[in-house]
């Protein structure tokens, strides 16, 4: 009964006050994608794709409008309690890599043992079904990144995880890079140009802000699959001329 009431409330808000829902930003799309198996939300999703005028927002004519709206960190932190945050900060700052498993097990048992808490994993990271959603959340800001309006630190976790996992944990780097390249081709085929520009802008911003010194760690690493290396090089070849020298 409660789930039915929650669904009805969300649908009513999305239908009647979509102008307010837009303030959530691009992660609204990611969340709605995760709910398309529910009939009421499937209808919302279809209208977003094919009939955006149904939402009666003057300047909302396509998904690109939402893609360009950054989701503020506030929306993620609202679901994470102060106690969870304190423990996460301790785990990330005081526990050496390689010694984290028992801390992770303790954290999961304490805060994530209920099935209702599964969605928190995505918000904490920023999960098969869980794993794919985790990766999507990790790269989501990459797909629509704009150097003028987005914070490069939102892209930092993914690039550092890929770069620092070579060569000891190269399987992680291969899996993440493969996922990113598949996303670029398949996430929204009609707006692939928007996504390509977003990802290339991320690489440029990461270099310009000194997050990484060079993309050679990915583009020329023998630890990566040869196929992935070639796909990445092909992607980077589309970088605007003004960025090319900085990527070499």
Descriptors:
single chain; mainly alpha; 0% strand; INTS3_N; INTS3; Integrator complex subunit 3 N-terminal domain-containing protein
Textual characterization of the structure:
InterPro entries: INTS3 (IPR045334), INTS3_N (IPR019333). One of its GO terms (cellular component) is cytoplasm. This is Integrator complex subunit 3 N-terminal domain-containing protein. Residues 2-126, 127-234 form the Integrator complex subunit 3 N-terminal domain. It comes from Cuscuta campestris. The chain is mainly alpha-helical. The chain folds into 3 domains: 1-76, no CATH class; 80-113, no CATH class; 118-244, no CATH class. Helix content is 64%, strand content 0%. The protein has 16 helices and no strands. The longest helix is centred in the C-terminal third of the chain and has 17 residues, at 170-186.
* Biggest sheet architecture: none
How many independent structural domains? Answer: 3
Mean pLDDT: 84
* Terminal CA distance: 58 Å
Give the assembly state of these chains: single chain
What is the helix fraction of residues, given as a range?
A: 55-70%
Radius of gyration: 19 Å
Question: What is the H/E string?
Answer: HHHHHHHHHHHHHHHH
């Amino acid at each position: 009964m409660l789930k039915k009431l929650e669904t009805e409330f969300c649908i009513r808000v999305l239908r009647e006050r979509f102008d307010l829902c837009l303030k959530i930003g691009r992660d609204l799309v990611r969340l709605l994608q995760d709910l398309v198996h529910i009939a009421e939300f499937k209808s919302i999703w279809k209208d977003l794709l094919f009939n955006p005028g149904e939402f009666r927002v003057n300047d909302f004519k396509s998904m690109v409008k939402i893609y360009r709206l950054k989701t503020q960190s506030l929306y993620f932190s609202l679901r994470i309690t102060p106690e969870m945050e304190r423990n996460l900060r301790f785990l990330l700052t005081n526990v050496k890599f390689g010694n984290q498993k028992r801390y992770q097990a303790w954290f999961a048992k304490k805060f994530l043992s209920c099935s209702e808490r599964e969605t928190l994993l995505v918000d904490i990271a920023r999960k098969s079904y869980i794993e794919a959603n985790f990766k999507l959340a990790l790269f989501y800001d990459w797909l629509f990144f704009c150097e003028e309006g987005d914070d490069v630190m939102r892209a930092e976790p993914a690039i550092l995880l890929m770069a620092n996992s070579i060569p000891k944990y190269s399987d992680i780097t291969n899996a993440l890079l493969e996922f990113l390249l598949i996303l670029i081709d398949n996430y929204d085929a009609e707006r692939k140009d928007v996504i390509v520009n977003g990802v290339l802008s991320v690489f440029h911003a990461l270099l310009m802000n000194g997050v990484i010194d060079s993309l050679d760690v990915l583009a020329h690493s023998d630890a990566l699959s040869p196929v992935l290396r070639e796909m990445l090089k092909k992607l980077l070849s589309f970088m605007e001329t003004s960025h090319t020298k900085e990527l070499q």
